[in-house]
């Protein structure tokens, strides 16, 4: 089934980020809009899409859970083929979307389809279940990867992640006092979500510029 896309940024941008949503949020949530605009402001082109289960939810109004990861993997790969992008391509996702992207990244890079992987709030483990790690494939990752993560993310804090074995191809940008949406506790830290989003955009622009 063909997908609908939301495109933010210049048509002639040399770098395109294909951005998938999280498990519960559609492609046009405020968070997705904000991060897409910030990345576009750095000269990047962002292409958002929705997995079929989320598109179906728009029509039915029923909040069905995501399907099996294998099906989401296949769908994300189909989206890349559907887009037929030129130039430097980075697959990316918010939370679950980033996890799906990470599971297909090496295969797509081996096929010459992408140059990198961007994860925005990676779900290293389910909330409250730090023993149930989702990191096995990250230990052998061959694709250049940037993970942007809040230091107090309940899906993987800085303290927790520091003990994980991860591939040398993975860089982590830590956002001080940020939660899973990068939002800091203003009263505690004096930081702001806007500042963290700007840091992410600047870091992603610099990182993608170095990809081949």
Short description:
About 35% of the residues lie in helices and about 20% in strands. It is of the alpha/beta class and about 210 residues long.
By DSSP (H or I, 4+ residues per run), the number of helices equals: 7
Structural category: alpha/beta
Taken as a percent bin, the fraction of beta residues is 15-25%
Rg calculated over all Cα atoms: 16 Å
Q: What is the helical fraction, as a range of percent?
A: 25-40%
Output the CATH class name.
Alpha Beta
Instruction: Tell me the series of helices and strands, N- to C-terminal.
Output: EEHEHHEHEEHEHH
Strand order of the largest sheet: 1-3-2-4-5-6-7
CATH superfamily caption: Alpha/Beta hydrolase fold, catalytic domain
| CATH fold field value | Rossmann fold
Walk me through this protein's architecture:
By secondary structure, the chain is an alpha/beta fold. Helices cover 35% and strands 18% of the residues. It contains seven helices and seven strands, in the order E-E-H-E-H-H-E-H-E-E-H-E-H-H. Helix 1 (30-40) crosses helix 7 (193-209) and helix 3 crosses helix 4 (96-110). The longest helix is centred in the last third of the chain and has 17 residues, at 193-209.
């Amino acid at each position: 089934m063909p997908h609908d896309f939301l495109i933010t940024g210049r048509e002639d941008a040399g770098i395109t980020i294909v951005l998938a949503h999280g498990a519960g949020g559609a492609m046009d949530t405020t968070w997705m809009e904000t991060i897409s605009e910030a990345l576009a402001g750095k000269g990047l082109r962002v292409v958002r899409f929705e997995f079929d289960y989320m598109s179906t939810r728009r029509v039915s109004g029923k909040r069905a859970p995501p399907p099996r990861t294998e099906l989401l993997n296949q769908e994300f790969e189909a989206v890349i083929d559907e887009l037929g992008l030129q130039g430097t391509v980075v697959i990316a996702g918010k939370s679950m979307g980033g996890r799906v992207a990470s599971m297909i990244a090496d295969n797509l890079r081996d096929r010459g389809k992408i140059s990198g992987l961007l994860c925005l709030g990676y779900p290293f483990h389910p909330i409250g279940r730090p023993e149930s790690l989702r990191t096995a494939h990250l230990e052998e990752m061959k694709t250049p990867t940037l993970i942007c993560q809040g230091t107090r993310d309940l899906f993987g804090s800085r303290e927790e992640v520091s003990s994980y074995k991860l591939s040398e191809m993975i860089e982590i940008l830590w956002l001080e006092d940020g939660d899973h949406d990068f939002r800091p506790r203003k009263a505690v830290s004096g930081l702001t979500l806007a500042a963290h989003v700007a840091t992410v955009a600047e870091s992603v622009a610099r990182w993608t510029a170095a990809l081949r």
